[in-house]
Major facilitator superfamily domain-containing protein (Staphylotrichum tortipilum), 469 residues
Amino acid sequence: MAGIWTRLQRALAHALDEIGVLTMWRSAVDVKLLCAQRFVRLFAYGGSTLVLASYMSAVGIADDWIGLFMTLTLVGDVVISFFLTLFADAMGRKAVLALGSALMAASGLVFALSGNYWVLLAAAVFGVISPSGNEIGPFRAVEESTLAHLTPHEHLPDVFAWYSLVGSAGAALGQLVCGWTINSLQAQQGWAFVPSCRTVFFGYSAVGLIKLTLALGLSRNVEVTKDEETQQWDDPVTQPLLGDAAPREPERQQPPPKKKGVFSSIEKDLWSLVIRLFILFGLDSFASGLASLSWMTYFFRRKFSLPEGQLGTIFFVTSIVAAASTLVASSVAKRIGNIKTMVFTHLPSAICLSLVSAPSHLPAALALLILRACTQSMDVAPRTAFLAAALPSDKRTAIMGAINVVKTTAQSLGPLLTGILARKGMFGLAFVIAGILKVVYDLGMLVSFAGKEAAKRREAARENSAESG
């Protein structure tokens, strides 16, 4: 009996280790606070995104102007994110997160109290209202860089998987609570649709204050250290995917011409890596902008005449499915690598996205929506772990911030195009285009990086084998 109990304990411990529970349990308090911030932030994003397009339509704004609003919001956030993430380490990561939280609370109040298009646009830009339900603004780049700073590299896939999961769970819960809150206010209290939506934005402001409290609770350990600023690329696990990198020579020592050439090659290869990431992630983000959550909920509401409560339930289910799938991604990535996990899980979701607007009956459309959700988010944690390992630590925050700026810039072009197509009666075409572009992105990632990552994994395996031998 004791032997069976011991085996059960070992099996449970192995299962918990596989899905990263033990890693999160042992992680620093700051890691847990950063994940909590992501949860409450995505809770607010999910709730506001569920009603954003419908709310603006209800106050008399045309579809193409709604698309323009989303585009200008994302463009404005590009500018703010660029400066905040570029100087986040100098300003202090804690200060940047706290400032963003305060602006988030203020924007919720503006949306709750004003219906003017340009006032709402200013609040959305400076206070971070998400048209897509996903991350915009400076938060994610700063948090991901901080998590990489606080976490040993071998545990990064687990931490980023849970970071992604709690965000998806927060967005799902926000959609559910928002949808049924509006239904309850309309059905039981007799409120009109617009005042009910404004209640959601008051809640958005309250969540911003909660996030501010969590940001202020972070310790000094989240800030960049002098050691990290000067860290060299001598750790094979943290080296970029650049081939054979040699350490720098001391500043006062004149390096031999050959070594100087190697260092120049490293810098050139780093730029090559970053440019390819810009192009591929930009393509994926443009596709995401075409099929943002605001447009998706608005599409289902208009095509199938669904009330907000049912919409909230539908997208709660899809978000929970997507969140649960991220845990599987972490386990898969440990076996086949981050790039293959990203591509092989993202391709099915891209195909389902391209088909989701085709069915004329709700059950078939929901089946495609749920099938898409099954693998929609499985690429998020492996992608973040790939970036954390591929980029040098002293440049990680700035490069991740620049990548997010490129992604947001590309994404900002999508909503306007979708709005124009929607007004011309071709709403579903936007989802078809988005799915095709995401397939191109997946194949581009596979061709560009899968071979290099596989070679790096083989090299690491040989080194571990030599050390154990």
Summary: The two ends are 37 Å apart (CA to CA). The chain has one domain: 22-223+262-461.
